[in-house]
Amino acid sequence: MQTIVGVLRGGPSREHEVSLKSGAAILANLPESHFAAHDIYIDKSGQWYERGRPTTPDRTLRQLDAVLIGLHGEYGEDGEVQKLLERFGVRYAGANSFSSYLAMHKLMAKVRAKEAGLLTPEFRYVEHVEDSEAVARDVIRTFRQPVVVKPIGWGSSIGVSIVGGYAQVLVAIEQLFFDGASKVLVEEHIHGKEATTGIVEDLRGEALYALPPVEIIPPNNGFFSYDAKYSGKSREICPGNFSRVTTEDLQRAAKVMHRALGLRHYSQSDFIVAPRGIYYLETNTLPGLTTESLLPKSLAAVGISFPAFLSHLVNLALER
User: Tens of pLDDT along 247-282?
Assistant: First the structure.
């Protein structure tokens, strides 16, 4: 008998379109011999649909054996949809609601990284828009310019900017609040190679199997922005051009963060490899699964097909 797997995609976040692509990739690659996939679309207002018809979570979820979450950003990665799945007792792949929230909150994730002994860029935290001027002045005095300005809880590098000078930093902070960010981080800009490393649990006999790090080379010496991620303009080398020692350090750091954040099943952590060491940036609890995404590329580099990976995720969800 086939296992009935719901695939959640869309959602009320700024990453709605990317989520549709991740969900489509899951639906196209989930082996039909073992699984009956239910395409569950959530529109930008939060309305659920199944087979094109409006539905409610309770009506849809009671039919399912397991769920694969193709959502990204708010509602998908911040623990909200996980709370819903937990309320209805539905098994799903990925981090639980609390760990999802923890990883999505960039400040809390950085605190966990520091407690675990990892390097992470120094930062200033802007809790209220009224604090923007004071923080901008402090940043100009304290950090070498330019700096990185980013929202606390958005993904896919949405809203991230690299700016220098009081006026530009202030505008960048205030613009994020204007656009709906709840809190803002201003970080020192670490120069080095961008890298990301995926972790998959209980794979090939390892409790935490570290995939080969991907080296990311954004276009025009820029950074891995939203456009660079999904336009195909970046060069992504897997395995990356890192020494054996650096590769092992990246894999160790990704395992450290998977544990430190209390994650499960799979994750992907981002780093900067700098002359001073490896700096932790953030962790994705629901990495992108589009044709442009990095996790499928790192899986392919070690001979793991995308359908086999999805089957593994469903099995992990059913075990716990």
Answer: 999 999 999 999 999 999 999 999 999 999 999 999
Helix (H) and strand (E) counts in the chain: 11, 15
3-state secondary structure of 3: strand
Residues contacting 251, CB < 8 A, separation 6+: 197, 210, 213
pLDDT tens digits for range 295-314? 999 999 999 999 999 999 99
Task: Enumerate domains of the chain plus CATH numbers.
Answer: 3-93 (3.40.50.20), 102-119+190-285 (3.30.470.20), 123-188 (3.30.1490.20)
pLDDT for 181: 85
List strand residue ranges (DSSP E) for the chain, in order. 3-10, 35-42, 48-50, 53-55, 66-69, 123-126, 147-151, 161-163, 184-188, 193-203, 206-210, 214-217, 235-237, 266-274, 277-284
Percentages helix, strand, coil for the chain (3-state, rounded to 5) are 35, 25, 35
Q: Which of 91, 96, 81, 72 is nearest to 154 (CA)?
A: 72
DSSP string across 248-313: HHHHHHHHHHHHHTT--SEEEEEEEEETTEEEEEEEESS---STT-HHHHHHHHTT--HHHHHHHH
Report the predicted TM-score, pTM, of the whole model to 2 decimal places: 0.92
Cα–Cα dist 2/5, whole Å: 9
